[in-house]
Design brief:
CATH class of the largest domain: Alpha Beta
CATH topology of the largest domain: Beta-Lactamase
CATH architecture of the largest domain: 2-Layer Sandwich
Largest sheet: 5 strands, antiparallel
Radius of gyration: 42 Å
Helix content: 55-70%
Strand content: 15-25%
Structural class: alpha+beta
CATH superfamily of the largest domain: PAS domain
Order of helices and strands: HHHEEHHHHEEEHEEHHHHEEEH
Number of strands: 10
Distance between the termini: 147 Å
Shape: elongated
Length: about 375
């Protein structure tokens, strides 16, 4: 019997208790459960093993002291009574305190699992249900009374056919956790998409499940929307170009390639200088550079372009800046082919000039 060792065991248990609580609060539930069932349980057994001899010892001493008290004076009886109270009180206090600490830890862990937003399920080594929290019941649509103590095969009809049963057995046998990122459960659990992680818990299995149906539906809608947007932009009648601060082409649509007569592959190799008329290239580059610096420049202007076959086209562009983290990082340009309009304007101007010339030329007599 070692009182100091019993007291030390009690102090060490408080450290283990705090470790379990901290792990549970930080989300390391598997580690918390393993400690509670592992060194925590072992520690409690050691502590009780130390306490029981102390209680027996105190009881024996009390009986001896009581026997001696019958033959001693009243003064000795008083001292023996004090000793009895001290021994009995200390033994009871240590035992009671140990039980209270264990109960508090269990209550805190139970409260944590009940309020957790993820579902938690515990199985024994034969995959019989031991525990399931409220979130898991809500996700599965089951009642506690309907599954407690039953085997997973009786509750999940297709668990063997899907191969998950073998995976669970493998987790128990090897201790290696397994993660299902997009699990479609049996129809009896509703039209859901689940994320599931299976891990070894003691000699059994622990499962964490999360309903990701809404998240995946939102992601799929976003992907569909983005795809439709890309298709719309790609097929748009307006030529679109996005270039970065270095002038590198980061995106262009099909109409932009058609405008200059290049394939998409060939367009990847082009720069501003190969697409803009030599007489306009410096002006366009200066406007582009000033726009990237945040200066006031024309939002809409015209310039001449050079097609792959070296023919000249007249273009109108509407450009704006794009920002990333509050900093200008690129420009987006919409371009229209206005060649026919410019040629028509030039022809009209020439016609008007010729018409005026008829009246301004002196008549010979």
């Amino acid at each position: 019997m070692d009182v100091q060792n019993a007291y030390k065991l009690f102090i060490d248990w408080e450290t283990i208790r705090d470790e379990v609580i901290n792990l549970s609060l930080s989300g390391s539930k598997e580690a918390a459960i393993n400690i509670t069932r592992g060194k925590g349980a072992s520690h409690v057994e050691q502590m009780i093993a130390e306490l029981l001899p102390m209680i027996d010892f105190a009881s024996q001493k009390a009986n001896q002291l009581l026997q001696n008290a019958r033959d001693a004076r009243k003064r000795a009886s008083a001292w023996m009574g004090v000793a009895i109270v001290i021994f009995a009180s200390f033994g009871f206090f240590v035992f009671y305190r140990t039980i209270q600490v264990i109960k508090i830890s269990q209550v805190r862990l139970s409260d944590f699992l009940s309020s957790a937003t993820d579902g938690f399920i515990l199985f024994d080594s034969k995959l019989n249900y031991l525990e399931i929290n409220k979130t898991a019941l809500k996700i599965t649509g089951m009642k506690y009374i309907d599954i407690f103590g039953k085997n997973i095969v009786d509750i999940v009809p297709n668990v063997k056919e899907t191969g998950r049963y073998d995976k669970y057995r493998e987790v128990i046998d090897t201790g290696e956790s397994y993660h299902f990122t997009d699990l479609v459960p049996h129809p009896i659990f509703g039209e859901k998409r689940l994320e599931l992680k299976a891990f070894k818990a003691g000699d059994g299995l622990g499962i964490i499940i999360r309903d990701i149906t809404s998240r995946l539906e939102a992601e799929e809608k976003l992907i569909k929307s983005e795809r439709q947007y890309r298709e719309l932009v790609g097929e748009a009648g307006i030529a679109i170009l996005i270039d970065n601060i270095k002038g590198e082409f980061k995106y262009f649509n099909r109409r932009f390639c058609e405008l200059f007569g290049y394939s998409e592959e060939d367009m990847q190799k082009q720069v501003h200088g190969t697409l803009i008329h030599p007489d306009d290239v410096e002006r366009v580059k200066m406007i582009h550079a000033d726009r990237l610096k945040g200066k006031r420049v024309p939002h809409r202007y015209e310039f001449r372009g050079i097609r792959k076959d070296k023919s000249v086209i007249h273009l109108e562009v509407s450009a704006t800046t794009l920002e990333e983290n509050g900093t200008i990082s690129a420009t987006r340009s919409f371009l229209w082919d206005i060649t026919e309009r410019k040629l028509a304007q030039e022809a009209l101007a020439q016609s008007e000039s010729d018409f005026r010339g008829l009246f301004e030329t002196p008549v010979m007599r």
